[in-house]
Design brief:
By secondary structure, this protein is α+β, with helices and mostly antiparallel strands. 25% of the residues lie in helices and 49% in strands. It has three helices and eight strands; from the N terminus they run E-H-H-E-E-E-E-E-E-H-E. It has an eight-stranded antiparallel sheet. The longest helix has 29 residues. The protein is globular and about 45 Å long.
């Protein structure tokens, strides 16, 4: 089962503030649904992530390796990763692209994701899993938006009022 999503939003903060926030592992980890821990194996390059998340009646426990495959400061981050839950014989493979563009008074942020799930977890039914993945992606983007906003406030920027993140597409 494969899902893709794109979201865009604006924050009243310069790209440098947004860029710095995106590399704050603790703050970004708080935005990942089910994230229990993140260990940075190689600075700004390779991360081990422990995920524990309930999907329907099943509890997923995945050890995920995430690798930054492309980084262009201060405008682009591409991440690829995969994880396994041996108990559920399930595998997740993902891609994340975050693009930053200067806007009229801040930064435009585009977030694109690809997510592929296989194994026992898919037997729950594609609709149930797809709906949960969509909700979790929206939660991630909303948290990312709030996290960047709070960084802008800490940097002395006025971020009110800001529109909520807008979902552009879904598959």
């Amino acid at each position: 089962m494969k899902r893709t999503d794109s979201h865009s939003f604006f924050v009243d903060a310069p790209q440098a503030v947004v860029w710095s926030t995106l590399w704050d592992t603790t703050r970004i980890a708080a935005c990942i649904p089910g994230c229990e821990s993140v260990v940075e194996r190689s600075p700004m390059a390779v991360y081990d992530v422990a995920i524990r998340r309930k999907v329907g009646p099943l509890l997923i426990r995945m050890a995920v390796e995430a690798e930054v495959v492309e980084r262009t400061e201060p405008s682009l981050i591409k991440v690829r990763g995969s994880g396994k839950d041996p108990r559920l014989r399930s595998v997740a493979v993902f891609g994340l692209v975050i693009r930053l563009r200067p806007g009229s008074a801040g930064t435009e942020i585009d977030v694109e994701t690809e997510f592929e799930l296989s194994g026992l977890i898919v037997s729950l039914g594609e609709r149930l899993i797809a709906a949960q993945l969509d909700r979790e992606m929206e939660d991630f983007v909303a948290c990312l938006h709030d996290t960047v906003d709070s960084s802008a406030l800490a940097a002395g920027r006025d971020t009110s009022p800001l529109p909520a993140p807008m979902k552009e597409t879904g598959a």
